[in-house]
Amino acid sequence: MEFDVVIVGAGPAGLSAAIRLKQLAAGKGTDLSVVVLEKGSEVGAHILSGAVIDPVGLDRLIPDWRDKGSPLQTQVTEDRFYYLTETGGIRFPNFFMPPLMSNHGCYIGSLGALTKWLAEQAEALGVEIYPGIAVTQAIFRPSGEIEGVITGDMGVARDGSHKDSYTPGIALMGKYTLIAEGARGSLSKQLIRKFGLDAESGPQKFGIGLKELWEIPPEKHRPGLVQHTMGWPLEDKTGGGSFLYHFGENLVSVGYVVHLDYDNPYLNPFKEFQRAKTHPRISEHLEGGRRIGYGARALTEGGWQAIPRLVFPGGALIGCAAGFMNVPRIKGSHNAMLSGIMAADAAFAAIEAGRSRDVLEAYSEAVASSAMATELKKVRNVKPLWSRFGTRLGVMLGGLDMWLNTLLPFLGHTLKHPKPDYASLKKASEVKPIEYPKPDGVLTFDILSSVFLSGTNHAEDQPVHLRLADPSIPIERNLPEFAEPAQRYCPAMVYEVVEEGDKLRFQINAQNCVHCKTCDVKDPAQNIDWVPPEGGDGPNYVNM
Q1: 527 φ, ψ to 5°?
Q2: HSE-up (13 A, CA, CB side) for residue 192
């Protein structure tokens, strides 16, 4: 199948690029064929975010979006920030916070619902969107440029044989291919490695974000309230914190982010999240309510200095595939949309000039001189300072650095990330195991009941999509050295060490996988390779 532009991923970046391309074509009175491929069962099924959304990207893409039935209806009215201790907490005065940290003017909502709406806008312009299609590899010309992608085969049994439902993958060719898979995408990882796109950037850093959606009593609902915390229950040296947003019809998004450069292999991000909800500053918002959704997702945290080269022959990385998230703001969707717009501008200009499959340097140049770059440069040192000095001192120094870069934008000092997240774990013998309280089933919950709420499903008779380069490593190396941390860092209980007689076996429950990619990031041996399962499999998030 031939198209002008092929886009992999129907998130905010991919859909913004598609819409912008069609807008530009309509403005010129020309036709441009654009296709968007989405591995989720429908647009939004795999989208998970807090989310407090800066509307700057929407304002640029669809200036009258507020009049077109957008699902973003709740504006931020109150902004709270706490440092928590086990029994109390200190609220930071808002005037201490750098201007960039203010959420006023932003909107609270579901990023999944927003992408569904964006898909409607794209289709109305003539964009072809195919959900339930997993892209497994890129197609390259003999001279090295990417000329398209191949979708995954359907109906393959676990032993590799073809079932009655077998359908081979399809090649989709484009003059340009935009990669918008989100954080730690499988195709993005291949392309970064093939073209050496990270040769001059630091290692990308990641966090794991866990989220629950609650429905609370009307009398407790405070639409527009935004609350962030740090501190307890994490130790000072471990980065992370909670978010809690009131929006919609009696809905509250509550979640937790743990930075994946933590060093204790016994740490369990899911259980830290459950423990955090017991703090009065969080539990008071949830009492009397009921949990109706759960999910988890890796997020990029490396900042400006970890962004790889964005372009390669025939294509570009956009959105969180490139890593445009602003860590202290916990926001990336607005930058994802802006990057999609800039990539679309560059691709359209190239096609109009009769070019194809070359390097879209205009996109890289546009990003470098954009307001998005200015924003990310202001916060570039926050994550390195937090990682080096811990929460209390690191955040204080990070706040000071943000103020300095706001008042003196010409400052050029940039701290590097010394090592990737998988290299940060200490040996299990060097740390103490962490004791977590049992869930009460009212405020705190177990993993399996949580995964049930994510709507996750995979066809069982298919190849396991979590591949081990060396099947012996989990038991022979990771277990004695690190107490096999996959049992704890996975938020869906995909990995277990089970006893079989007098032997131990590493079990992969691929059916549980919520596609968060944490295992691909954090495994200390880098032995786990996350690849897409059959298209349409995975979580089916609603209003997440």
Answers
A1: -100, -10
A2: 26
Q: What is the pLDDT of residue 18?
A: 98
pLDDT tens digit sequence for 53-66: 999 999 999 999 99
| Residues 6 or more apart whose Cβ sits within 8 Å of residue 484 | 474, 475, 478, 495, 497, 506
DSSP-derived 3-state class of residue 336: helix
Q: Is 193 exposed, middle or buried (0-12, 13-18, 19+ CB in 10 A)?
A: exposed
Is-above-0.85 flag for pTM? yes
d(CA 134, CA 482): 33
* Mean predicted confidence (pLDDT) in 506-521: 97
- Predicted confidence at residue 202, as pLDDT, reads 83
- If pLDDT is split at 50, 70 and 90, which confidence band does 411 have? confident
| CA 511 remoteness from chain centre | 21
Dihedral (C-alpha) 458, 461, 462, 466: value to the nearest 10 degrees? 70
Residue pair 230/83 in contact (Cβ under 8 Å)? The answer is: yes
Q: Which amino acid does the sequence have at 191? A: L
Residue 250 corresponds to which amino acid? N
Whole-Å CA distances, 194 to 105, 188, 506, 525 = 41, 10, 31, 21
How far is residue 456's CA from residue 343's CA, in Å, rounded to a whole number? 32
Report how far apart, in Å, the C-alpha atoms of 133 and of each of 11, 168, 171, 533 are: 14, 12, 12, 10
Average pLDDT over all residues of the chain: 96
